[in-house]
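ok trying this again, last paste got cut off
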Amino acid sequence: MQWQTDWGLRGRMFLTMFLLFVLYIVFFAALTTQFQGMLLPVILIGSFSLFQYFFSDKLALRSMGAKKVSEEEYPRLHAQVSRLAQQADLPKPTVAVADNRTPNAFATGRSPSNAAVAVTTGLLSTLDDDELEGVIAHELAHIKNRDVAVMTIASFLSTIAFIIVRWGWLFGGRGRNQAPIIVAILVSLVVWIVSFLLIRALSRYREYSADRGAAAITGQPAALASALMKISGRMDQVPTEDLREQAEMNAFFIIPIRRGFVGKLASTHPPTEKRIEALRQLEREREMGR
């Protein structure tokens, strides 16, 4: 299979990014006219976001307890990552392993030259070679598409809106005229809610794109579909405490941790069943093209 552009998917991602752009323009206009005291917090949040952007690979690995491993420690894993990175026309990323029974994987890093791919010991013990390569290829597709950078940039002003909603009264002072502060907080609340949903939708679109990219890299859509089924089945057996500890890393995982209606509504990933069906369709197309 060849790496092909999915224009329908790209169109939906472009529309979502455009809506976020329009939303943020309105947000900045309202912020400037109604809440002038927010300049310092915006600068501080911006500085933190830049720090997060440039050190996202190290921060993500540390938060998950993943450690860089050598070829001597994990020769098979390194060989798979090297081969797949070459097939994806990418530099080999840092390879890391997290000692965790939850079967999962994630990619991080602002660019292909500063990227890392991490897998859990639970994943290594769950999947066979073809399935593991499908998962690794999915993470490499995220790197090739620069998804970490895209999602960090998309989330920047949403974070500012959330901070205003939470700390607006403190930043705005306690003067007599509180009307501008109230307006700014209400606007920020609307912006945060709408951007939250749009960013989640963008993340779900990018998961479909990464699945297609993995199929193109390996030429085996069925292997990734099989891996998703295995991981999904094992996730239901993971203790609730382990899920709670890792919930904040949902956007990075090959399959997110979600429990209940609200978790599904705000999911960063599309339903696993739909991903599997899309991969099966790719497999049928591949077989017909032989």
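PB: full thing came through this time. The chain has a mean pLDDT of 79.
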